[in-house]
Structure formats: C-alpha cells, structure tokens
Design goal:
By secondary structure, this protein is an alpha+beta fold. It has two domains: about 150 residues, no CATH class; about 130 residues, FdhE-like fold (Alpha-Beta Complex), CATH 3.90.1670. It has a six-stranded mixed sheet with strand order 5-4-3-8-7-6, covered by helices on one side. Strands 1-2 form a two-stranded antiparallel ribbon. The longest helix has 23 residues. The termini are far apart. The mean pLDDT is about 90. The protein binds zinc ion (ZN) (2 copies). One zinc ion binds next to loops.
C-alpha cells in the first residue's frame, strides 16, 4: 500500500485504522455450529445468520480484546480517556455475567446496551463503537467459517447475510458485471442489484443514481433520493490489471467521498440496525 493512495486520509486517522485493523483473535476463539436445515430455512426468510444461530465466543478473549480496543482509542483520542476508562470499568467481571453480556452484545440487544449506559452513565455512542470494534474480529471468523455453507446468491437483501450490518462499500465486479455489497463489520460480500438502494430497497432509477469524481473514475457513490442513504463503490474494470483490491482499505481510502456525500445531504447509515424483524433481535 503506497502512502499516495491514502492522500485523502489524515495521517492520524490512518494510524488509528491501521492499529484497529491489526487487532485480532485466533480463529478458534469463535465456534460456529454446523448449519442445519431449520437454520438455513430461517436464514432464507431474511434473518441474518448471527440471529438464526449465534456462534460461541471465547469470553475471556472477548474482554481482553475490548481492553486492547480501549487502549488504541485512548492513544488516538486522549481527550476521551476518561470516557473509555469508565466503559472498561463498567464491564462485568464474574463469569456468568460476562457470558450473559457477550450474548447480549452479539445480538445487539438494545436493552443490555441501554441499561449499561444508564447504570454507569456512559457515552452510548462510544460504548457502541467499542463494542463494534471488539466484535469485528470475532464476526470475521464467524463469516469465514460459515459463508461457504450458505448460498449467498439467494440473499439479495440490503443488509449483511451474516451479521445484519449495513454496507458502506460495494464492488462492481469486472468478471461478472454484478454489484457486491460489503459489510465492514464481518467482511462478508454478497450480490445485490446494480441499481437499487440497499437501505430502503427503492429501485427506481430516477431516485437511485450514482456520481463519480472527476479525477478518479474508479470510485462511485450511489445515492438514494428517497431515504437519503448512500453507498460507495469501486469499479473493478477501472482499477489496474493486477491491483489487489481490499475493500476494507478502499473504504478507508475514500473518506473524502463520505464527506462529499454528506455535504450533499446524504446520510451514513452504517450505525443503524436494519429492520430485519424486531422479534428476532429480542
Ligand atoms: Zn456483516
Ligand atoms: Zn433508499
């Protein structure tokens, strides 16, 4: 990766992304059960796999990683040290409470989050960030262990088939001419309509369009005038012949496009939890 590619990213921010991306756990700290027919049937109705059959996570590794995430955040945002420390101090210490917390966090259980925030007077936004960053390496293993057993061509929805997250990035495949959405939380890619909004599923071309920026035709920003959502894309046919495309870094490299989209009045919907059936989340 050359530094030139990251010309739009503040060095400070790039350092933060690099350190966060380097945080990981061994694959055997996540255990996905085999996917039976009942699980696959449920998944096909639109329930992300994480909610059909959550994996078992190694609870000790989970809390150890949360400490590491906290340390990186404090290093890059020293002004938030007190807030981060309060979050780390509020985490449960005994075994059963930890197991319960991890189960709640995995399912993005709003109640667990709210009561923790209230009880310890925490910043909800910061706690959400710490939890997402901690979950990420675990969910990546979960995705790697399970996607081969799912037919992702059948999914065709605007949220992640594995963890339910919203996409912020996508890839226009040179080989097959399809658009793949990318989940930055678990790194799953799945096929979706080339035109069409992943957030509100609007498909009218008049209201879902894309723009490019003059000096780099490789990237597109798809915007939806119905729900004001946007998703960035890389057009592989415009990328170099042997260029290795890693969507995680493409997303980081193109922060200027996020700013542009937001200036135009579009919203980053990454933090929103998609509506795939409230009943399964609780
Ligand atoms: Zn995902
Ligand atoms: Zn939309």
């Amino acid at each position: 990766m050359s530094e030139h590619e990251f010309q739009f990213v503040e060095p400070h921010l790039l350092g933060l992304y690099r350190e966060l991306h380097a945080l990981t756990v061994p694959a055997d700290k996540v255990r996905a059960e085999p996917l039976g027919k009942a699980v696959k049937d449920m998944w096909q109705t639109g329930v992300p796999l994480l909610y059909c059959q959550p994996p078992s996570l190694d609870v000790h590794s989970f809390f150890a990683l949360m400490q590491e995430v906290g340390a990186v955040l404090k290093k890059y945002h020293p002004e938030r040290t007190g807030d981060v420390d309060r979050i780390l101090a509020a985490l449960p210490v005994d075994g059963a409470a930890r197991e319960q917390a991890v189960r709640g966090i995995l399912r993005r259980d709003g109640e667990w989050l709210e009561s923790t925030v209230r009880e310890h007077e925490l910043s909800e936004e910061l706690l959400g960030l710490v939890l997402s960053l901690t979950l990420r390496p675990f969910l990546r293993h979960f995705s790697a262990q399970t996607v081969a057993h799912l037919n992702l061509e059948l999914w065709y929805r605007g949220y992640c088939p594995v963890c339910g997250g919203h996409p912020n990035f996508s890839r226009l495949s040179k080989a097959v001419g399809k658009r793949y959405l990318y989940c930055s939380l678990c790194e799953t890619e799945w096929v979706f309509a080339r035109i069409g909004c992943p957030f509100c599923r609007h498909a009218e071309e008049a209201r879902v369009r894309y723009f490019t920026v003059d000096d780099d035709q490789r990237y597109r920003v798809y915007v939806c005038d119905k729900c004001r959502g946007y998703v960035k894309a890389i057009d592989e046919s415009k990328a170099g012949q042997d260029e290795k495309i890693e969507l995680f870094w493409e997303d980081v490299k193109t922060v200027h496009l996020d700013l542009l989209a937001m200036q135009e009045g579009y919203e980053n919907k990454l933090a929103e939890i998609p509506d795939f059936g409230e009943e399964v989340k609780n």
